[in-house]
Write a structure and sequence with these properties.
Layout: H1 6-26, H2 36-40, H3 45-60, E1 63-65, E2 68-70, H4 74-94, H5 102-122, E3 132-137, E4 140-143, E5 149-150, E6 154-159, E7 162-166, E8 170-171, E9 175-184, E10 187-192, E11 198-211, E12 214-227, E13 235-244, E14 247-252
Helix pairs in contact: 1-3, 3-4
Length: 255
């Protein structure tokens, strides 16, 4: 079953209001009472429908997919639960079914977000032995070479800046190579060699991450994907991607 998305609902609402206004203004004998206040009271339907969409998607996106093992997206699940809770709470309040203190919700929101950001930044740091890495602040940088070069574990941090990484000519050493990627109000783009062995662990808070055709975003999101990983794998890249009010995109070279 395909659920209606929030963009569709907003578009339908605006279209309906516009048609009613047009009929009122141009057609004699037609007068439709347009109660804007009543229409606006139903805005919580949007996060409610979005939450249901994300909830269904979180259960349907687990398993094998184009040779990749996709784990349960707990971040998307929690985002869905929060969106549904917000939709139910505000819709019930607007329609008079129950009441609650809105200020309490806002007082809890930002401290919880800050705690989650702190936990997200503290977990899963790259191996201390890695000598790779890059830090950019309000600027851009590129990693990679047209000639073969050796890839090493390292942390790549983009703060209000951008990092472009091209690993198509990189020599992957034996064992595990950890790339710890953090984008805060910035962006990181990574191009991987085709059919490489990868363990991807992505999370986002008020941002977005993308691993090939798997995209996650929203208030809280997260996903783990394993590609070409089995008991015979001798070398692989572990990508730990975290985007905070920013974006990280992982793509694969076409050739």
């Amino acid at each position: 079953m395909r659920f209606i998305g929030g963009r569709f609902l907003i578009g339908l609402l605006i279209l309906g209001v516009g048609m009613i206004m047009l009929l009122n203004n141009l057609v004699d004998g037609i007068e439709i009472d347009l109660n804007i206040g009543l229409i606006l009271s139903y805005w919580p339907v949007i996060p409610l429908v979005l939450g249901l969409n994300w909830l269904i998607a979180s259960f349907s996106s687990t398993g094998m997919e184009e040779g990749r093992k996709v784990f349960f997206p707990w971040g998307q699940f929690f985002t869905a639960v929060i969106a549904i809770a917000v939709g139910v709470a505000f819709l019930g309040r607007n329609l008079g079914y129950f009441d609650f203190d809105i200020s309490l919700a806002f007082n809890l929101f930002w401290p919880v977000i800050l705690i989650m950001i702190g936990i997200n930044l503290l977990r899963g740091r790259a191996h201390s032995g890695g000598r790779g890495g890059q830090f950019t602040f309000m600027s851009g940088s590129e990693v990679g070479d047209s000639q073969p070069w050796k890839l090493e574990s390292g942390s790549y941090f983009a703060l209000m800046g951008g990092i472009e990484m091209d690993l198509t000519n990189a020599e992957i050493p034996n064992g595990e190579t950890v790339l710890d990627l953090t984008a805060i109000m910035g962006g990181i783009e990574v191009k991987l060699p085709k059919d490489i062995s990868v363990i991807y662990e992505g999370s986002a808070i008020m941002g977005g991450t993308s691993f090939k055709n798997n995209e996650d975003g929203g208030l809280i999101s997260g996903r783990k994907i394993e590609q070409n990983i089995d008991e015979h794998t001798s070398s692989f890249i572990r990508i730990q991607a975290r985007a905070i009010m920013g974006g990280i995109e992982i793509t694969e070279a076409k050739i």
